Amino acid sequence: MAAVTSTIVMPISVMPTNVLFTQNQWQINTTAVCVATTENNTGTWIVTEQTPFHPVSHIWPDHPADRGDLIYQTKHYSVADCVVGAIEIATQQLYIASDIPVKRDTEGWVFVVAHYIALPLVIVAGEEVTLAVDKVYQQGLSRGHSGGHLSSLALNKVLHADFWRKDPSRRDELGNYDFHSYAQEKSLVSENCSIDHYRLGKTLRKRGLNSAEMVANLAEITLRMNQQLAQWLQLATPIVMRREGDTLTDSRYWQCDLGPEGVIEIPCGGTHATSLAEYRALTIEFEIISDQELVMITTAIVA
Question: Are 153 and 290 found together in one domain?
């Protein structure tokens, strides 16, 4: 479903989509600003002025698209996919996901959220539709994503003093050596879960990581991480999404007060839990794929 759309109707001015998925809004009435039909005429992409749907990113697709319905003239249509799109103003052409040929903030382009309905649907641009997100599913993803941030911080903290033989220079938001950003190859968020894939290659060893020792001591590392996560969760402090604007392309930051370690802030465009009190526990386990591949699984147990 990443093909460039073939037709587009856009009689009103198009602006970057205003996003509401960081503001705990799950159903809104909004205006359709453009409607496009796929080349094989089997589905329709719909862009609206604002949306509570979180789209999957075409750059780092770790956070899945939200689920839910588009309601038009009392009929409910399942949103089969939700992705980042970009509209070239001069040609009024909508590009979808991996077919987007420009970076965000390129002059003459606007970035939007595109909702996919898996059938031909005639909506006149300018008409009102209702967008309703599956709240339970979105909140499950949100807990998984926030849990992933917390576990990466805990991992960096546990490794900092005992598993580096020299300073690799890059540090995380808590001031610890940033193993997570150095080693992470991919990640995947799901309901109440986050999975991170790490590569323990030659470059990381040259930076100073004692990777063989790390792998040999994963049981101890896991225990210490779980203890650290339990301490943070006891704080029950709010999780805040700081926004620099309301549009899809405006920067957003995950912010959490970790008590004596201070308020930390991580750039992130996903949806997130609203408080550490949402968790009864966060647990970590590791899977060793090879001597150079390691997977960390973070599981959220709901309060």
Answer: yes
